[in-house]
Amino acid sequence: MTDPLILTVRPEPDAYAWTFGGAPPMARIAPGTVLDLFTEDCFAGRVRSEKDLVSEVCEFPFLNPQTGPFHIEGAEPGDTVAVHFVSIEPARDWAASTTVPLFGALTSTHTTATLQPPLPERVWIWRLDRARRTALFQAQDSDIEVELPLDPMHGTVGVAPANLEVRSALVPDAHGGNMDTPEMRAGVTCYLGVNVEGALLSLGDGHARQGEGETCGVAVECAMNTVVVVDLLKDIATPWPRLESDTHIISTGSARPLEDAFRISQLDLVQWLVRDYGFSAPDAYQFATQAVESPLANVCDTNYTCVAKLRKEWLPARETYRGVHARLRETARALRG
């Protein structure tokens, strides 16, 4: 086994992408390349204290900067890009979370218009202990402090959309984007359908941790040092972003209303069972109904994202995606030494 090519990218502040599609590639890479990346937080590093209100220090729409895009040689529509997360590590010893006016699941929004004023802006700075793997919550209106375990993830991973579209990095859809699922953690392989030549892969929006649903609209947002292996599966289509871990296969769906996001993820899982595991559609529908886990990813973004996941131990012993997850796991082990 030859050592993979490793590309290290530490973007300058003006080198981030703010959209999927419409941005020129940062670099061209061959399948099998290891990307050693720095990603900035969703606030572009500008929210550093309780006094730094998003409305004052950030400039809309320049939120959620992405490292990329990367042109993957040989990628064409109808193919699938596999992104295996080797490691996701906070790059700082602090992270920020906020309330943002007219954003979040428990407040008026631009699309859920109500008479009462928006919730006030507030900022919480979370202290990260990277050695002990903890994130410290400090209440603002009492002396309550709670340590939660770090669970680093990427909220945003995607490729350029189809049909010449350019989508804000705040939007999740069939191309990936701002899905905000805690399933996107180290050890997982993400499958993304290619829509344009080169795929144009980008990622960002690191979270030190996030609850399912991301209810207030903002996770524990932090810059990340992330290592991924990128591979290409020719002539395999992936209609919606999928993930594979050592224990589960996972489908996603992003839409509004929430029930449509749920339906998309469930249908995609059923279709995955039919394509790769030998089920008929009625059998897959019945089996998934009784075995699926359906955590929410986000109920706050421009589109909501639902997840449908099944335990591998309950599935027939069949190969999916040509066994690329297991192969990339071996690459990851070799990289870690």
Automatic annotation (TrEMBL):
It holds the Pfam family FmdA_AmdA. One of its GO terms (molecular function) is hydrolase activity, acting on carbon-nitrogen (but not peptide) bonds, in linear amides. This is Acetamidase. It comes from Streptomyces roseochromogenus subsp. oscitans DS 12.976.
